[in-house]
Amino acid sequence: MTDRQPSGEELARLQALMAVPLSRRRLLQRAAGLGALAVIAPAAAACGTAASPSPASSPSPTAAPQPSASAGASTPAAPTAQPTPQPKPEAELFVYNYADYIGDTTIADFEAKYGVKVTYDFFDTYDTMTAKIADGHSGYDVTFVTSVDVPGFFKNGLVQPLDLALIPNRANLAAEWANPGYDPDNAHSMPYMWWTTGVAYDSARVSGEPTSWKTLWDPAYKGHLAMLDDYRETFAAALIQLGFSANTVSDTELDAALALLQQQKPLLRTYTADDIGALASGDVWVCHAWAADARQAMAERPTIKYYLPEEGAIRGSDTMVLLAGAQHPIAAQLFIDFMLDASVSAANTNKTGYMGPNEAARTFIDPSILSDPTLNPGEAAIAKLQELLDLGPDLAKYHDRWSKLRAGA
Amino acid sequence: MEAATNAVPEIRLRDLTKQFREVLAVDHVNLEIRTGEFFSLLGPSGCGKTTTLRMMGGLEAPTSGTVEIRGNDVTRQPPERRPVNTVFQNYALFPHLNVFENVAFGLRRRHETKDEIRRRVGDALALVRLTGLDTRSPDRLSGGQQQRVALARALVCQPMVLLLDEPLGALDLKLRKQLQVELKRIQREVGITFVYVTHDQEEALTLSDRIAVMRAGQVEQLGSPEELYDRPRNRFVAGFIGTTNILDGEVVSVSQDRSVVRLGTGELCPGPGRAPAAGQPVELAIRPEAIELRAMPGGAERASSLGGSPDGGASALRGNIEQSAYLGTGISYIVRTVGGQLVTVLCTRPADRFDTGDLVELAWEPASALVLAPTDEPGQAAAQSKTDAQEA
Amino acid sequence: MMRGRLREGALLFPGISWLFVFFAAPLAIIFVVSLGQRDAYGGAVLDKGLSFANYLRALEPSFLPTVANSLKYATATTLLAIGISYPIAYWISRHGGRRKGLLLILVMLPFWTSWVIRTYAWMIILRDNGVLNGVLQATGITHDPLILLNTDFAVVLGMTYGFLPFSILPLYVSIDRVDVSVVAAARDLYSSPGQAFRHVTLPLTMPGVIAASLLTFIPAIGDFVTPDILGGAQTTTIAKVIQSLFLSARDWPFGAALGFLLILATVIGTVSTLRILRAEVIG
Ligand SMILES: Nc1ncnc2c1ncn2[C@@H]1O[C@H](COP(=O)(O)OP(=O)(O)OP(=O)(O)O)[C@@H](O)[C@H]1O
Ligand SMILES: [Mg+2]
Question: Which domain holds residue C79?
């Protein structure tokens, strides 16, 4: 993701360009489908699919598997399976994360507290990370996975269940994060940071204060409108506008969304993977955008503004997971626990500008972040946010329509 | 030089000069080429023959000077507008066109009718004896056939002047001889002016009405083959045209019809009456066939005295036969004189047969020895040729 | 006889195995995958029966506009690339003198920089507040910024620029091989410079033109990145659809079917073009 690159806008943009299919969501889905890598051994892929209970046609948030159902089948007998009264961390820990996605002293503080030597590596794209952990021998213990991928990663045996006894700080989580749809009871993941997807616009070009998705369909801005090159996000924008669930699998609802998007297409300048660049350059006046990207564009072009449409919008989050092949599971889970500490979490937020799920941390968070509606929308707006869920085979319904949309004249 | 003085020359070059960066390829050349003649530019490699020819054809722009064709200044005219055609050194046939289309190329550019093209290409191919090869591709022709196609391609356009750049250079000796004859025949048949570039003196002598001998971008001497052969102006021309003995010496005495020259080796020999004053250095040129060999009494003994009386009839150098070669038309001997000078002699009379080591006397008519201009500097020769051109 | 055959076979072996490893084998894998089905998590499943169902989907008319886009961009790119490269290659060959090699390297130099940086440079030039619009407005040619980025124009520009080396090199080689005296002969035979070019230089460099066209057209047909980055909502190419099927939809069998059809069409098109051109050149 562009929004976490360390050194300067331009470099970030270049890297974004380099990793062409950049949008976060698309990468995630690819990762969830690591089974695709098994094309050379199709039987194995078939096996993996057969073993997992079909999430069925139900679009409900129960798409995540029950940990008890498949834990035995797909995870090694980890020491985390039994509660350990006196956890003694291993001497080392290997953490794999985006660059600039943590507080300045967090790692050092953890090392000091537990006497663990941490090797902390960055990945430049989500792709790199998923490729690296795909074979289960990456050598890393903890990595950061987007929430929608958690069920898929678990199904594919890439992550293992957490020993919640080692993570008492989960008590700090806000109620909405304690039992999230993508991972009930946080059995396999702990939330780290969250963000929203809404609309960014250049107030120097757009009259009034837009509040709706419809601004992205306004012919007045023809040639200066852009949607994200991300089919879940783009369909979500249409579905939400039509009053449907962003996770619908109803063909009629999806067809209606497709029709709406087809109607929009001639007005669009581009389906962009680089919303920051589109906005900051001035080419695009109204852009479907991620909040953190919008904030970065504002730094370059102060007239940029961001809003969550009144019809509702999308919220996404990153989680911390314990990798299947972890050699240092206790240190890893102590690290996850440490990251959920109120002051540590606040320090991370203060550094990165991303809001965490940590209720207890709020008192330590920089007031300017808390009061920034782009980063921290109010309760009423949050209430209208939807989370994108793993749709299993029904995802094809989205992609087929996306292909039609993109291919259409 | 004698006739055609009043007629407008077919081609006239005035002070024609071409400078390629640091190379002065052609240096103030003045030439007049007469209508209908077979004119040759003869000279060693790199002397500027091709460049001179290309400037006539318009393929190279002169640095200075002018080119006139039949009195019209064509210096600024592009090649396609000049009434001349070229046979290139390497033929330069169009590899993507067959024989017929190669020959028809110029006619098509001039928008001749289909029938006219067919007729004239047929005639041209007949003229060069290539009838029937119309559809061949050039890369499936022998060297001689390619040469003929190049010739036909140029002739079919009926130019006023045909420019030929060493057209036979790439062929073997036998084929070259054969094609020389044909070229001459064709020239007679079509009756146009040929300007022929070659570095082969024999070819030039055989074919040409007149020859310009070039050296380092300048014309050293201009004349008929006989003039060049018999009266080369300097050592360069003498050496370039035919085989010649060149003897360096000093004039001892000059009389009415003869002179006596002392060679560098100390030996005395006869020279012509028209010679520099006594005491002056001189270069004598004597053709091998002008020398007569006489057997000396004493058989195979080694000649030991600087014999020959300077005033007694034909002077006589003495020496021993060093080498002999049978040439068919005669025998060529190399004689080493007593003083050590090597002299080539060509005997055409079968009676005179000598063996290696034989002691012989060398004799020649004083008038057959030629006094060469005392210099080899190209600049002066050019100044000379310029004067010639103005005289003409 | 047998022995000759064997030796011939041995000589062909490296070429054939190269073709096999780098062309036939991947193509075969693509074909096999294209007969399979997609499973829930994006795997290609082959043991549930093979079928041509994906090909039926691929032939749906909804993909036609992207095929048309691809053809449009590849054709325009090829024509432009040849039109630009030919004079450059010609000039270097005829007037480069001793510095031909250096000039060729200089022409290629921009292409040694990262593709990303070059493309980004085009974005800077073409955007609404970019260099080109700046110049157009400063000179009073336009008043409001033109939309240049994210258009067909930008795609063709980016592709042409990107594929220029592929056309310059073969053209240079074939132009350099044309004997200048053959051109001089044409001039001598009453051709203007233009006629000499049309009747001699061009036919003789036709193999280079064909090679350059193929080397430009084929990668241009498969280019999904340039249309994606310099293009916009209306510039989707078939290659982009295929890429997205593989990477984001995880529908490998369908992507493979579309990809296989694209390769097949390209190969057939290429071979028949070569046939026609060869017949025309040989006559
Ligand atoms: N295009 C050119 N650029 C630079 N120098 C040239 C060029 N063409 C000829 N020269 C030089 O000019 C001089 C005369 O060349 P030219 O080709 O006229 O000689 P030539 O008498 O035809 O020689 P040859 O018998 O070898 O064909 C040579 O020194 C040659 O190197
Ligand atoms: Mg020459």
Answer: 65-282
Atom of ligand 1 nearest to the CA of B214: 21
Identify whether C59 is part of a domain.
Answer: no
pLDDT in tens, C236-271: 999 999 988 887 777 889 999 999 999 999 989 888
Q: Whose CA is nearest to atom 29 of ligand 1?
A: B46
- In a domain, residue C42? The reply is no
pLDDT of residue A15: 45
Domain ranges of chain A: 92-194+316-377, 197-315+389-407
ipTM higher than the 0.90 cut: no
Same fold, A92-194+316-377 and A197-315+389-407: yes
Q: Whose atoms come closest to the Cα of B51: which ligand?
A: 1
Residue C208: CATH number of its domain: 1.10.3720.10
Tokens of C200: 């001699």
| Burial of B75 from C-beta contacts in 10 A (0-12 / 13-18 / 19+) | middle
Architecture of domain B243-372: Beta Barrel (2.40)
Which CATH topology does B2-237+380-391 take?
A: Rossmann fold (3.40.50)
- Say yes or no: B88 contacts chain C, CB-CB below 8 A: yes
Which residues in chain B have their CB less than 8 angstroms from residue C186's CB? 94, 105
A167-198 pLDDT per residue, tens: 999 999 999 899 998 899 999 999 999 999 99
What residues of chain B lie within 8 A of the CB of C195, using their CB? 80, 109
Smallest Cα–Cα separation from B107: which of B91, B123, B126?
A: B123
Q: Is C6 domain-assigned?
A: no
Q: What is the pLDDT of residues A221-275, one digit of tens each?
A: 999 999 998 899 999 999 999 999 999 999 999 999 999 999 999 999 999 988 8
Give the domain A197-315+389-407 fold: D-Maltodextrin-Binding Protein; domain 2 (3.40.190)
E strand residue ranges, A75-147: 92-98, 117-123, 142-146
The Cα of A339 is separated from the nearest Cα of chain C by a number of Å equal to 31
Instruction: Give residue C98 CA to ligand 1 midpoint distance, Å.
Output: 17
* β-strand partners of A314: A197, A386
Distance from CA of C201 to the nearest CA of A (A): 41
Cβ distance of B92 and C189 shorter than 8 Å? no
Instruction: Output the CATH code of domain A92-194+316-377.
Output: 3.40.190.10
| Integer Cα distance of B293 and B346 in angstroms | 9
Handedness of CA B20, B24, B26, B30 (dihedral sign): positive
Q: What is the pLDDT of residue B373?
A: 74
CA-CA distance, A138 to C40, in Å (whole number)? 26
Which residues of chain C have a CB within 8 Å of the CB of A17?
116, 119-120, 229
